[in-house]
Design a protein that fits this description.
58% helix, two-stranded parallel sheet, mainly alpha, Fumarase C, Chain B, domain 1, 2 domains, 20 helices, Fumarase C, Chain A, domain 2, 3-stranded antiparallel sheet
Length: 506
Amino acid sequence: MAVELNGSGLTIDDVESVARGGASVGVTDDGWARIEECREMIQEKIDNHEIMYGVTTGIGEFSEVVLTPDQVKDFQKYLIYSHAAGIGGPLPEDVVRGAMVGRINVHCHGNSAGRREVTQQLIEMVNRGVTPVAAAKGSVGACGDLSPMSQVAMAMMGEGDVFYEGERMEAATALSAAGLEPLKLHARDGLAIINGSNMLTSMAALTLCDAQKWVKLQDVAAAMTLEALNANMLPYDHRLHELRGFAGSQIVAANLRRLTEGSEIMAAQGKKVQDAYSLRSTPQVIGSVRDALNYARSQVEIELNGVGDNPVFLVDEQRVITGANFQGTPVSLPMEMVGTGLSMAAVLSERRLNRLTNPALSGGLPPFLTEHAGMHSGLMVAQYTACALVAETRILSHPAANQSIPAAADQEDFVSMGMTTTQKTAQIMENCYSVLAIEFIAAAQALDIRGMKPGTGVAAAHSLIREKIAHLDEDRPLFPDNDAMLELLKSGELLTVVEAAIGELD
């Protein structure tokens, strides 16, 4: 599979297919034409000694310093060196690959003025699996993700480290093994690589891909718990949600009805007039998360297909415009909303888990879902683990987008902290998968104890879980079960089995 880039139409799913799925990338003929036309324009201006920010001047606080022709030649190299100032362990390889894809797409607009060779090196490194090592900490998400993207540029130059064929090694060694030559930077080339919010946008895109899968799995877990607790299904009636009008809640309620269709448990008597909020509010809460995810996706895809750069070069007008199109706020603010929404969803999942394990709330299920209470503790401490995850998730949902600290001697006096936002939202997403895994284990255990036939979709999920994780009869260490369930969710196998039984969930 190949993803052809031309500056428009790039989706978060495309980014995932390259970053994680091994798809290759290319640039369309019209994309290459725009790249070359823009470079021709800037080269003429360079030859005429015109003053252009970041090309014939310094950057940031040094933007008023005009470079000599000899300095212009070497400036881009020193720019990259000085900005490769991160710290800590490396960013995930898929995030770096996604950032490279996003940067290629920016170049395709023909407003960045880097040479064709720059874009070609990015393409070849992505397609040949040469992934730069970039420090996870150091970007403030304004002037772009300067620090990690500078390490990408260094790798393109044959400096620093990369991951290649499963190993970390020197970039020069990997480029040679992959049949590539180190890139020599010319005027503007370095800034054309680093001056955009591509790293934080890549992480946002991949987190949203994970979230798209998670919200469906959330519906499956919720349906299993509703069955296990013999819930009243009136709160999921389509008329109720249509009357209020929110698209997300209508989708969740419809999924819950489909998943529980054909259930003997739901047809049984003995239901409460009204269940607790953690049960009957699931469509409203998770529906709101779905709506937030859709908005965030729209914003991230605008950024993926926009010109995130500074300055911007307008070929038709022969003009150079400086601005702040590197600013990460258009992505970081929606991702703050996503992080907050996911943290709420984690709370909801843990509260449903609590009702399964608490004998005062579980509608006749044994304490902590063990049939040998006292001698055995069942899933008591699994709920502790969920509590710890939820507590961390709540802390991580504190906003970073309003935490600006001025940089560059106050020339860059407002920054987005967008990399911090997307990193913590990615961790929230990871925690949500873990909390949901524990709820799945508890719901499956409760269904075993009920002993009645669940709905078709729930039954498919329950059957697969029992293939991977045994019923908890006597106490055993639970961490292997938790890890196995987490892996099952992330693999996509459980969702595949459920959708094979009832059709694709919305």
